[in-house]
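We close this part of the discussion by returning to an individual protein. The amino acid sequence and the backbone structure tokens for this protein are reproduced below:
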Amino acid sequence: MLRLLTLLTTLISFATFSAPKSELWQYWDSSNEESTQTIAHQSWQTFIDRYVVVEGEHHLVNYKAVSQADKRALKQYIQALSSINPREYSRAEQYAYWVNLYNAITVDLILDSYPVKSITKLGGLFSFGPWGDEVIHINDKALTLNDIEHRILRPIWNDPRTHYAVNCASLGCPNLQTSAFTADNTQALLEQAAKEFITSTKGVSLIEGKLTLSEIYDWFAVDFGTKQQLFEHLAQYKGELKSYSGKVNYEYDWSLNDAK
């Protein structure tokens, strides 16, 4: 009976999974472009330097090796960001703030449940992952990871490269970058992340004329425009797609981005 319940729960979770729409949370659509204040992300950079491992086309996290002190430091970094009012900062500072916060919270959630085979195992009994759970309070407002990605980052910046910036702790996901985002390096990092993903087999695989794309391009097709616009985007980094006109398959690997 337990095995049957587990199977049914898994099937329901996969069947009901769908990518949230981009719907602006108006409250967060505010900034101070005259501000010269910066937000410190050195704690997050230190964590990345210690525990992100580059193996081939994957950037893996050595979750098992994270010390108790560094787990506490990560939580302190997240807490520090939660005490900031991002609306008082420039748009450039805000973007780095939200991306780093999203990625740090994701890693923290994995560490709290480690060992775990996939982030999709987190969340409630009938949940597909933790994305709908309240994970932080900012300005006395409770936020989920879905809020950060789909109600703040996507609708405010309207940049499809955001999908290469936020990391879902899975092998199929665009890599967790080896540099924390800052107002100064965001554009360079977004370009780097896009190139890494599109030239990797997990992003775009063209073998003997058969094209397989990451399901990101199916789930968030609206962000990349028409099929022609999508291929123009992909061709910027993988030129052989300029003239592709055949069938497209989609795949995604939800296995944890764990450094063994």
Remarks:
- Confidence is low (pLDDT under 50) at residues 1-16.
- Residues 31 and 87 are 5 Å apart (CA to CA).
- Strands lie at 52-55, 58-61, 134-138, 141-144, 204-207, 210-214, 248-251.
- The two ends are 33 Å apart (CA to CA).
